[in-house]
Design brief:
321 residues, alpha+beta
């Protein structure tokens, strides 16, 4: 069909969106794009609704081609982005010409790349989300030879060129400086807070969208080493009985039984989703009010980008998406 994408190369890639909320009590994790800022900005620049499903490419090479000319936007980790060997920009919309091969390779300075298309792709929503969940197998994982149908028709798949300023592009680099708020078990770790802030942890190879294990430094002499199982949010940093911190990300289970020393702010949780094995990470405690203010400013910025794109493309009231 003329309005399809063909996946030419894929190792670890899937469809993601803002996530699947409100179903933790049934065993469903939130999932969604691990870097929500990069994901949302890619949609905003195209004038798509922010929750439009996009392609998340993790670590390895990826390639596709479209059977129609279509505007796309590639954000996230730095990578080589090419259309038939022509280098294309990131954090900026461009037109992928019909039958040209879009290839993502040499992903570095970050772990995940996001590809959004004008109008998005037509994928099933399961419990209100298109996000792939590797634990349950629901959603869309992409493999070589797969096809994705486009939501855009031939009259609305081209969007005006738009980008965000260079200074607004996140810096994905080690050492990472991550803001955290005190966790629910702060009292257990009163004597460890200073060490936790000063320590330079290293990201373990045993890390994924469920949890990011930190090594090199461990906390000792804290009690209790386990707590009653309870619900937990993405970004919580639990401490195992052996003193190893684990950052629980968007694919985490709904409950845990280890004490939580801190919770990563919503904005910096996106940065955590870009950390690579062996990267160094250091934490800084901020207040909940500070974290909320930073989040509000970021969301306001994203919506400002979206509003500019809607105005530029004259699609705010036409319902073409």
């Amino acid at each position: 069909m003329s309005d399809e994408l063909l996946i030419l190369e894929s190792n670890i890639a899937s469809i993601q969106d803002t996530g699947r909320y409100g179903l933790e009590n049934y065993g469903f994790s939130i999932n969604g794009a691990l870097d929500q800022f990069a994901y949302k900005i890619s949609n905003a620049l195209l004038g798509n609704p922010l929750e439009t499903p996009a392609i998340e490419v993790t670590a390895f090479n990826f390639a596709l081609k479209s059977h129609v000319d279509i505007s796309i936007c590639v954000t996230g980790a730095q990578a080589m982005v090419e259309a038939d060997n022509e280098v294309m920009p990131q954090w900026e919309t461009f037109i992928l010409k019909k039958e040209k091969k879009l290839r993502i390779s040499k992903i570095h300075s970050g772990m995940r790349v996001y590809i959004s298309l004008a109008g998005g792709v037509n994928v099933p929503l399961i419990h209100g989300s298109a996000s792939y969940d590797g634990m349950t197998g629901i959603g869309t994982k992409l493999s070589k030879g797969d096809t994705l149908s486009l939501n855009s028709n031939l009259t609305n798949c081209i969007r005006s060129k738009m980008r965000i300023p260079e200074e607004d592009i996140p810096k994905y680099e080690s050492p990472w400086e991550i803001n955290v708020c005190e966790g629910p078990d702060a009292a257990i770790f009163k004597k460890h807070k200073k060490f936790f802030e000063e320590a330079k942890f290293r990201v373990s190879l045993e890390s994924d969208n469920i949890g990011i294990r930190l090594e090199k430094c461990r906390l000792t002499q804290f009690s209790p080493r386990q707590t009653l199982s309870r619900g937990i949010i993405p970004g919580a940093i639990e401490i195992t009985p052996h003193g190893q911190p684990i950052i629980l990300h968007r694919g985490r289970g709904g409950t845990i039984g280890y004490p939580v020393i801190a919770c990563i702010s919503s904005t910096d949780l996106d940065l955590a989703g870009q950390m690579r094995p062996h990267d160094t990470i250091q934490f800084t405690f901020i207040s909940t009010d500070e974290a909320i203010e930073i989040y509000r400013k970021r969301e306001k910025y994203i919506h400002q980008i979206l509003d500019k794109s809607l105005e530029l493309n004259d699609i705010s009231t036409k319902g073409v998406i």
